[in-house]
Amino acid sequence: MALAECRCCGQAFISGPKNEDTCPSCVVRLNKLYPRVRNFLRNDAGTHYTAYDVSKILDIDLRDVEKFITMGLIEKNFNSGRLQETKNGGRRRKI
Ligand SMILES: [Zn+2]
Q1: C-alpha to C-alpha distance for 10 and 57, rounded to whole angstroms
Q2: Considering the entire predicted model, what is its pTM?
Q3: Could you tell me which residues are beta bridge partners of residue 12?
Q4: Ligand 1 centroid vs 46 CA: distance in angstroms?
Q5: Which residues surround the ion ligand 1 when the cut-off is CB under 5 Å?
Q6: What is the DSSP string of the chain?
Q7: Domains in the chain: ranges and CATH
Q8: Cα 47 to ligand 1 centre (Å)
Q9: Structure confidence by residue, pLDDT tens digits, 43-75
């Protein structure tokens, strides 16, 4: 247990034994948000979207989109910057 700063909202919170970097309220919010982002990327698989585009179009915080990238749920193509759903489930990890 230690005092930590949430990397999504910047709020201080007490992290658990896994040294979480996201506060409990953001975890709840991100869990609700992710299906929207995933469906959006699936439905527009042929379109070029950056993290900034996704945040603007879905009206969500850019930091939340970047958090999904950090979590390995979506990935960024290093050449184009385009976002896509991570194909390799093995890279997924919990918030
Ligand atoms: Zn937070």
Answers
A1: 23
A2: 0.76
A3: 5
A4: 32
A5: 6, 8-9, 23, 26
A6: -EEEE-TTT--EEEE-TT--SS-HHHHHHHHHHHHHHHHHHHHTTTS---HHHHHHHTT--HHHHHHHHHHTSEEE-TTT--EEE-S-GGG----
A7: 2-90 (1.10.10.10)
A8: 30
A9: 876 778 889 999 999 999 999 999 999 888 998
